[in-house]
Amino acid sequence: MRRPNLLITGTPGVGKTTLGKELASRAGLSYVNVGDLAKQGELYEGFDEEYDCPILDEDRVVDELEARMSEGGVIVDYHGCDFFPERWFHVVFVLRTDSSCLYDRLHSRGYRGKKLQDNIQCEIFQTQYEEAVLSYKKEIVHQLPSNTPEDLERNLDQIMQWIEQWMKDNN
Q: Would you give the distance in Å from CA 103 to the centre of its chain?
């Protein structure tokens, strides 16, 4: 039975991991947090002193995921999306959060200064959405609000309906 691959993307702090893990549990799909995958496999090509974070080796991440993605049934969670092969995903969900809510979430994670401001600006200017639209067919890219627990439940319901329809149409 064929199962879809989904990408959940958006600025750090919008709720990708919370949504992705719960969705995987409800849908019986596997879940990959690219940040965790990179950490486990040390898939880095350096360290960014300005942002105080490792630099992802995107080619090694793609190599690491290729076999799993070809099997289907994978939810990928990452704040970037332009380096993944277009053929991997059947749908892309870009989570969006109001900047004041996002500020509080990132501040509570210890984001400060330039790192905090740049991430807020990315959300204000829809950077992740624009990257997704440039990287994938526009018709498979969807924005979802992610501000409240009610948004989370609505998003879970909506994506579960999408998955169920995809499974009917493709099996």
A: 19
The packing angle between helices 113-124 and 99-108, to 10°, is 150
pLDDT digits (tens, 9 = 90+) for 6-57: 999 999 999 999 999 999 999 999 999 999 999 999 999 999 999 999 999 9
Please report the sign of the dihedral spanned by the C-alpha atoms of residue 151, residue 152, residue 154, residue 158.
positive
N-terminal to C-terminal alpha carbon distance within the chain: 6
Helices (H), the chain: 16-27, 34-41, 58-71, 99-108, 113-124, 127-135, 149-170
pLDDT in the model for residue 71: 97
CA distance 75 to 17: 10
Q: What's this model's pTM, rounded to 2 decimal places?
A: 0.97
Give the other-Cβ count within 10 Å of 56's Cβ: 20
Could you tell me the two tokens for 83?
A: 């380096």
Query: pLDDT tens across 22-31, in order?
Result: 999 999 999 9
